[in-house]
UniProtKB/TrEMBL annotation:
PANTHER family: SEC14P-LIKE PHOSPHATIDYLINOSITOL TRANSFER FAMILY PROTEIN. InterPro entries: CRAL-TRIO_dom, CRAL-TRIO_dom_sf, CRAL/TRIO_N_dom_sf. It comes from Urochloa decumbens. It comes from the Eukaryota. Residues 108-261 form the CRAL-TRIO domain. Gene3D superfamilies: CRAL-TRIO lipid binding domain. This is CRAL-TRIO domain-containing protein.
């Protein structure tokens, strides 16, 4: 196995304190334009976006995660700093992707083949900041033998599952990439690009932090390629070791089994 490398010289992103994390959630939830009539203003913008989508893209589906889903519209408005034009554009792309990709039809049964490998899963417990946890075990990912479309379906299913577990008042999830045992044959730039698109275009601001755990030296070339693609999302990445995962993100009772000492 290749020697482990922390890459601390590349990225420093310490975890938020519990109090700051809670205040951040409150601030994000209240981040609507204007001080006095914030709710009224945001409601008007939601209606405007909904009407634009109905008028310009009548073929898009309605209902949950559709063109008339007001919660989804508000979330994308926040992401686009309440620009109606940008929200309409991004929502159109996201809703169409969900439709074409068949996100609503994904289930554990439909992704069972790769799910059973244990290469990725949603942890049963939340982290200490109350976030659902998506764990990826890189050493079990083999792009040369695993169907890339099935990999993407598993990814979308698990992201949906993690988001469905968001507690009230919590808005994003924690991603943990377990890089112990990572080798060159586990590298998959195509899938990483898909993952970046998923969180930027289709699930914006749903990823609160990403931990790259015990990254070996052979991972460095891939990180140098991926980091520019992440843009502002690169600031969410923290390289750390498994002990940090145990002590700073979980209790003894809630730590994922793979990270128990």
């Amino acid at each position: 196995m290749a020697a482990s490398c922390s890459f601390r010289s590349v990225v420093r992103a310490p975890p938020l304190s519990r109090s700051f994390a809670r205040s951040t959630v409150r601030c994000c939830s209240a981040a609507t334009p204007g001080a006095g009539g914030a709710a009224s203003t945001s409601s008007k913008l939601v209606v405007e976006v909904k009407e634009r989508l109905a008028r310009e893209h009548p073929g898009l589906p309605t209902g949950s995660n559709g063109r008339d889903d007001e919660d989804m519209i508000l979330w994308f408005l926040k992401d686009r700093k309440f620009s109606v034009d940008e929200a309409v554009s991004k929502l159109t792309k996201a809703i169409k992707w969900r439709q074409d990709f068949g996100v609503s039809e994904l289930s554990e049964e439909s992704v069972r083949g790769l799910y059973q490998t244990g290469k990725a899963y949603v942890h049963d417990s939340l982290d200490i900041y109350g976030r659902p946890v998506l764990v990826v075990v890189a050493a079990k990912h083999f792009p040369s033998t695993q169907d890339p479309v099935e990999n993407e379906k598993l990814c979308a299913y698990l992201v949906e599952k993690a988001i469905s577990r968001l507690p009230l008042g919590t808005e994003n999830i924690l991603g943990i990439f377990d890089l112990r045992g990572f080798r060159v044959e586990n590298g998959d730039l195509q899938f990483l690009k898909f993952l970046i698109d998923v969180f930027y275009y289709y699930y914006p601001k749903r990823l609160g932090q990403v931990l790259f755990v015990d990254a070996p030296f052979v991972f460095q070339p891939m990180w140098q390629i991926v980091k520019p693609l992440l843009k502002s999302y690169a600031s969410l990445v923290r390289f750390c070791d498994s002990e940090t995962v145990r002590k700073e993100y979980f209790t003894e009772e809630t730590v994922p089994p793979d990270f128990r000492s």
